[in-house]
User: What shape does this take?
Amino acid sequence: MTLSAIAVPPFLVAQDDVRTAGAAQYVSARFQRARMEAVMRSAAVAVQVTQDASGYVFAIYVDGNGNGVLTRDIQRAVDRRIGASERLHDQFRGVDFGAIPGLPAIDPGGTPPGSDPIRLGSGNLASFTPSGTSTSGTVYIRGSGGAQYAVRIFGDTGKTRRMKFDRGDRKWKPM
Assistant: This one.
């Protein structure tokens, strides 16, 4: 029993980290899928992340009128959803978009996420063009045990990079 009491807490921390890392990989893959959809469809495609009473929901939308994917066009069903809406915590128990309190910015001199883990512009859209470029931004992903990751999108290339926050030395590290 004593050995179990010693072994269980580190196991739970490791399990939280694995789940949160998996969620970050999944979100990164969803962004890359949206990028490829834009290239294949020769139309703007965006991932929209919104918050409701039970957490965050994200979905992929395609431009329906040639002016890019816009929140107002999503609301009017001009830009239509492709695929189902998703929630991270449905697939990765205990994981959702979020930031631990006091989380520093990824870049020196940058803005920390504060209470907004979705840093994709005012509409919370990561838009991808048919040429493969995108809006720049970062989404923060937090596990229930405090594991913290971020997925960054680089506008010039539309590519993503996953980062992990090391709580011990309080620094972001590339994955």
The longest helix spans residues 2-41. The chain has one domain: 2-174.
